[in-house]
Amino acid sequence: MNVPLHLWLIPLLPLAGFLLNGILGSRLPKWLVTTIALLAPLGAFGAVVYAYLSLNSIAPPPCVTTPCGPPGWVYTSLPHVETFGTWISLSSLHIDFSFALDQLTLVMLLVVTGVGFLIHIYSVGYMHGDPGYARYFSYLNLFLFFMTTLVLAGNVLVMFVGWEGVGLASYLLIGFWFNKTSAASAGMKAFVVNRIGDFGFLIGIFFLLANFGTLTFSEIATKLAASPAWTGGVLTTICLCLLVGATGKSAQLPLYVWLPDAMEGPTPVSALIHAATMVTAGVYMIARFHFLFDRSPFALSIVAIIGAATALFAATMGLAQNDIKRVLAYSTISQLGYMFLGCGVAAYSAAIFHLMTHAFFKALLFLGAGSAIHALGGEQDLRKMGGLRKKIPITFWTMTAAVLAISGFPGLSGFFSKDAILAAAFQQGTLGKALWAVGVFTAGLTALYMFRLWYLAFIGDSRDEHAHPHEGPWSILGPLVLLAILSIGGGWVSFGGRFYDFLAPVTGPRAESGPGSLEYILMGIAVGVGLLGWLIAHFNYKPGSARVSAAALAAEPTGFTKLLAHKYYVDEIYHAVFVRPLLITSRYILWWAVDSALLGGAAWLLGGIATLGGAILQRWQSGNLRSYAAWLAAGAATVLLFAFYASIGTYLGAHGIDVHWMGR
Amino acid sequence: MNFIQQDVPLNWYLLLSAALFCLGIVGFLLKRNIITVFMSIELMLNAVNLSFVTFAHQWHAVKGQIFVFFVMMVAAAEAAVGLAIIIAVFRVRNTLSVDRIDLMKL
Amino acid sequence: MHLILFIVFAVCCLAGAINLLLQTHPINSALSLIVVMTSLAVLYLLLGAEFLAIAQIIVYAGAIMVLFIFVVMLLNAGREERTLGSRAARTIGLPAVVVLLALFATVILHIRGLGTASLSQGITDTQELSAVLFRDLLLPFEVTSILILIAILGAVALARLGNGEGTVSK
User: Is the entire prediction scored with pTM above 0.80?
Assistant: First the structure.
C-alpha cells in the first residue's frame, strides 16, 4: 500500500529557502539567512531519510506483516509514485507532475541532500565575508530544488525541467562573482555548452514521444517489455540523442570544455555542482533509461567508448595543470568517464556505486582544496603552495584520505567502486578488454596526478614566504571530517553485494562475476597500477627533487607537457571552428545585413513612405482659393459623370461610337 | 414667317442656363480679384434661377418660382455679408488678390 | 416673335457673361453683370414669370449690383495684375468645366418631353404666386426676413471701422 511519503517536501523546502533568501535575504540578519539556508537541505535530507526508513525492503521481516516500530509507522513498497496534478492533457498525450521514488532515486537523493547539506555547512564558513552571502545561499537552494526535481521525476518532461534548472543554477553560481569578466564568461560558456547537449536531449524526447506516445518511465518500460524483440534502429537513435544530452551535462567528450572554466565559481559550488551532483545527472539519466539502452548494444558501446576516451583524455590533461582546482576539475571529468564506462558495459549499479563514492571523495577533495585556498588567503597556484602539512593538519589528513580513496587504495571506497566497473568491463568481450586496459592505465594516471597535487600542496617546505596559513573555522572543518569518514567507509556497503541487490529492482540483476581468481587478479593489477602511479609521483615531486626546484617550477612547459598544459588546444580549436564563424555570422550577417539593413530599412521605408506621402499631400493644401475651386470643379465633374454615364453611353452609341466599357 | 412664329423649345433655355453656369465656374477659377470672383458666384446663382423658372413653366408649378424668389433673398443676404467680409479682409491684408490671401495653407 | 426675342436676349446674356470674364477692371465686370441680370429678367418675362422679372431687376440689378459697385469704389480696386497664382486652376479646372458643360449639354439635349414656350401661354399670375407664398409658405417667408436682418447685423458688425487690426488709408 502506498502511504504518503510527502515527497513534495524534498524539492519544496529548498525552493522555499530560495524564495525567502532570494527576496528578503539582503534585508535579514546574517544568522537568519544562515538558518533558513541550512534548514532547507536539512529538511529535505530528513524527508529522504524518512522515506528510506519506511521502506519495506529494509524493514526487519516480522515488521512487514505486523506493524512494529513507532506507533503508526507504516512501511511502504517501491516504486512509490506521487502525482500532483495534470500538466499536459491532449488526446494523444498525457503528462502529469509526478514524482516517482524507487531505489535508484533513493540512493541519488541520499547523496544529493546529504552531501548538499554538508556543503551548505561548509559554505557558511567559506563565504562568511562575502557581500553576496544571501544570494549565494538562495542560488544553492535553488540548485537543490532543481536537482531533487530531476532525480525524483516520474516522467521525462519533469526530469527535463530539473535538467534545465540545474543548468541555470550552475550558470548563476559559476558567475557568482559577476564583476569578474572571466567568471561571467565561464558561466556563459557552461550554459551554452549545456544547451547544445540539451538540444540532443530534446530531440531524444521527441523521438520517445513519437515512438511510445508517453513520457512516463514506467509506461515506457512496460511498452518495451511487451515487445522483447525490438532492438536497434530507432531505439539506437533515441539512445544516441539522449547520450548527447548526457555528454553535455556530465562533461564528456566533446562537450567537456565548460567544466574546467567552471572553476571560476566559489569552491563549495565546484564541490557540490561540478563534482558530486549536477555532473552526475547524465549518469543518472542513462541509468534511469537503462531499459532503453539495453536494447541497443551499439549505443552502449558508444557510451563506453566515450567514457573511456574521456577518462584517459582528461587524466592526461590533469597531469600538467598548475591550478589546484583545475587538476580536480579534470579529475572529475576523468571519473565521470569511468561512470559512463560502467554504464556502457551495462553495469549500471556499479556506475551508480562509483557515483556515490566519487561524490564523497571528490567533494572532500574540493572542500579540502577550498580550505587550503582559504588558509592561504586565496592562492590557488600549486607552484606557490607547499608545506601545508604542518600548518593545516586537519585539512591535510582529510585530503590524504580522499587522495588515497581516488587512487584506489585497497579498502577505501574508491577501490571498491572503480574495481567493480573495471571488472565488469573486462567481461564484455574484446571491446570490453580494450576499454579495461584504457581504464587501468587511466587509474595509474589518476594516482599520478593526485599524488602530484598532494606533494606539491602539502609536503615539503612552503614556496611562498608571505603565506601565513591557518586552519578555518569548524564550519569548514566539520564537513571535511564527515566526508573523510564517508570516503573511507563508504565502500563497505557493497560487501556481499548488498548495494547491488538493493538497486537490482531498478537496474537489473547483478552481473555474474567471473571466477574468483580472475577477480583477484584484476584487483591486483588495479592496485599495482595505482602503486606505480604513486611511485612515479614520489620520485618526481618529493621535496628536493629536480622538478620541484624553483627553477623547474617557474620554467615554461615544453614539448608534450606544453600540449597538455594548454589542454590540447581544444578550446582554441573550438573557438576557431565554432565560435568565430558564429560571431562573424552574428555581427556581419545577422546584425548588419538582416537587422540594420533589412529590418531597419523596412521600418525606415514604411516611415519614409508615410512622411513622403504626407509631404506630397501637404502641397495640396496650398491655401490658394482658386486651386481649391479647381479641384472642386473636377470632383463635381467626376461625380456627375458617374451619375450619368448610362445616358452618355446610349447617346454615344446612338451616334455610332461604341463604348462597351461604359456598361449598358 | 414660319421661322419667326416658332416657339422656343425649353431645352434651349436649359442649355443657356448650363452655359451661364459654366461661364460662372470659369470666372471663379480664372479671376484674381476677389470681388470679381464673387460676381461669378452671382452669375452661377442666376443661371440656376433660370433653369428653375424654365421647369416652373414646364409644369406650371408656382413653387418653382417661389424657390427662385427665396434664392434671390438669400443671395442678397449673402452678398451683403460677403462684401462686408471682403472689406474686413482688405483692411488687414491690404490686397484684393485671391492669391495673396492664403493664410490657411499648411 | 418669341424666338427672336429669345435669341437676342440670350446672346446678350452670353455676351455679358463673357465680357465679365474678359474685363480686367472689376467695375467693368460689374457693369457686364448688370447687363446679364437685365437680360435674364426679360427671359423670365418670356417664360411667364412676371413678378420674378421685376424682382430680378429691383433686387438683383438694382440693389445687389449697386452694392457691388459701391464696394468696388470704396476699396478703390484697380486693374488686376497678371500673376499666375495657381497652375491647378488652369490645368485641372478648365478641363473639368469643359467636361461639365459637355455633360450638361448631352443630358439636356437628350431630354424628351419638354414642351415649348410661347408668348401667350403659361403666364403666372402674381396673385397665384402670392397665394402660395403668403399662405402655404408663410413661415419660410418670415424666416427669410429674419435672415436678412441677421445679415444686415453681420455686415455692419464686420465692416465697421475699429473692428479690424488694420485701417484703410484715409
Answer: no
